[in-house]
Amino acid sequence: MKVVKTVCHRDCPDTCFIDVTVKDGKILSTRGNGENPATQGFICPRGIGDPKRVYSRKRILHPYIRKSAENAGKFSKATWERALSLITDKLKDTLERHGPESVLIYDYPGNQGFLAWQFPRRLWFALGATTTDYSLCSNSGHAAIGLHYGLTYGIQPEELQEMDVITFWGNNAKVSSPHQWSFASKARKNREAIIVDVDPRKSPTSEAADIWLNPRPGSDVALAYGIARYIILNRGVDRKFIDEWTDGYENFEKEALSWTPNRVEQVTGLSWNQIETAGDLYINKRPAAFMIGLGLQKSCQGTEAVRAISLLPALLGYHRGFHYSDSNGRFVDWAYLCGSSLTQKKGKVVNQVSIGPRLESGEFKFVFVLGSNPAVTLPDQTSVRKGLSRDDVFVVVHDTHWSETTYFADINLPAATYYEKTDVNFSDHHLYSRLSNKVIEPLGESRHEIKVMQEIASRLKLSESWLYEDPWQALGIALKEAFTEKSLADILNGEVLKLKLRPNNEYQTQSGKIEFSSSRSFEIGVQEIPVQTELKMDGGRYLLLNSSIPNYTHSQFTDVYGPIPQIVWINKEDAGKSKIHDGNEVLLYNELGEVRVKAIVNEKVSKGVLWAPRPLTGLEGSPLNVLAPGTPQIIGGGPKFNSIKVKIRKLT
Ligand SMILES: Nc1nc2c(c(=O)[nH]1)N[C@H]1C(S)=C(S)[C@@H](COP(=O)(O)OP(=O)(O)OC[C@H]3O[C@@H](n4cnc5c(=O)[nH]c(N)nc54)[C@H](O)[C@@H]3O)O[C@H]1N2
Ligand SMILES: Nc1nc2c(c(=O)[nH]1)N[C@H]1C(S)=C(S)[C@@H](COP(=O)(O)OP(=O)(O)OC[C@H]3O[C@@H](n4cnc5c(=O)[nH]c(N)nc54)[C@H](O)[C@@H]3O)O[C@H]1N2
Ligand code: SF4
Ligand SMILES: [Mo]
Asked: H or E element: which one contains 544?
């Protein structure tokens, strides 16, 4: 029996250090490792359940080729030789007949490893293929904070222990980042910090917070301005900080003062008393942290909300007194690692969120999917699935497991899981990194992503030497500046290194200051200061919120924990009106599609609001995302998953 040190590669801000117990080449169990001060030696149900996922019957263990054009989802086992030769023939033919733009690499962070995810992208950059802008998750929030701060890095997890007020805003951290939550609850225990949660539904984080503010969905700008008004009128503003570190404050102050108590109450549905309570906390209890959710920004008003909230700490005199995601405050040469800076070819970049109609129109003739399950997780599923089903689109999926997307493939390639390959990955939040060691040999015929991409490159007779560079050498170059001291060589020796982060009082804006009025806003056609847009609901429609739950990473872990609960929360009064009882089957529908789920009647959502776990597949087999429009946001091109408008009808 031995214990192997690895690091969780799931798409999760926590990036836990994990110790894996192995016997006779088989994983027995996993447990948290305390060498990482930020992840504190505990892991979540996904970290615990991962060995079951490694050995699950859903693993793809061999290459599979679709039996015939008519037979979607029916595959025959094939050799790697046959699969790769078909792929390269098809790729060559597509490049010749339709050009590199018709080749799409659709990759996403199913595995966050530098080597499993980024290095293999070199093949597609060498071909000049089309890539996506990765806008499905956090881009819009990055762009929103970027308007006022430059880059978006902020508070470090350990700093939460020294905070007196911690506000989770549209951020269900107790579920989505359990280690972040754990620091907040330590601050409450050790220094009586107050935890505030702002969420229109009563989430697990709201349940555990000291103060829960439940504004109407999408009314967060009004709430932030209301709080700002209270702080301004009650001498809470740090004038010295404003003068020294910020620019364009007057516009923001004028707008905040226009948010009278009456106006704030009308838009948010909260009482002014609640705003006074929050305002008093921020004025009197210091320091404060604003933890801005990625979930918050995924709506019609999301980016404006993120902008407004990010400016509250500046009002109070804190440098970057928020946390959103630190990924862009690091020193990693991504362009070198993924090869985009190594080629003259400038492939097309398309918006990920609105890719459905492009797929449907046949714009791409060859689609290579890596580390993602777009046939569930993208909005506008009807277009996405129609696109993937086209006879003239050749789809290759390289994944560890059978998924909704593998169903649409012409060829499925088996990938080794992160337990079966050595890699390095960085957290989006904490600063600690160590080597993620290979724990077991790849199961079946599963292969590393780099091996597959280099094999395709050599079969295509591509001559760029950087395609065949030793990946560890490339990683060493990409991470040359990444650590406070030492280098990748020390990581390879088993050390835990700390990442370098930009100074928290450095602002990458035109003025070099925090810009309350953004000097870049006109470039993208938005106002200089955050704007509360009108909340429009058509008669009879509900707003369907949806967010993550503990046992699943997006569509993953259904093989371990069963289907994502096929449920929707509905307010008691709304349910009464439609005679819906707890446990009734209901149909959620709009002009894009319909999904069947069971109703849970409660008072955790307000009237007019529904909530469902994401990204569930309904009782009749339709993904929730058939209901989600694929129109991107103006700022950052992100999705609007929390602005889904639906009707609901009782079925049984
Ligand atoms: N268990 C688990 N953890 C995960 C993931 C996972 O799949 N499973 N995925 C990871 C990833 S990729 C991401 S992006 C993060 C996301 O993690 P979070 O940022 O926490 O986002 P969500 O899980 O969507 O939860 C956001 C909360 O915002 C609320 N909300 C919705 N609309 C509004 C609004 O208009 N205003 C306000 N104030 N609140 C609103 C929702 O009710 C919900 O409770 O989680 C990461 N962690
Ligand atoms: N309704 C709704 N939909 C959403 C959201 C929402 O809030 N609401 N949020 C969006 C967000 S924030 C995100 S980040 C996206 C996530 O969207 P996706 O990235 O599509 O998420 P997953 O379902 O986790 O798919 C990851 C895939 O990678 C595979 N994988 C895991 N490890 C490896 C590996 O080592 N190698 C290879 N080759 N493959 C591997 C897994 O088996 C899985 O099929 O979903 C988005 N979709
Ligand atoms: S999914 Fe997140 S919290 Fe869970 S073990 Fe992995 S990194 Fe840790
Ligand atoms: Mo995400």
From this structure: strand 542-547
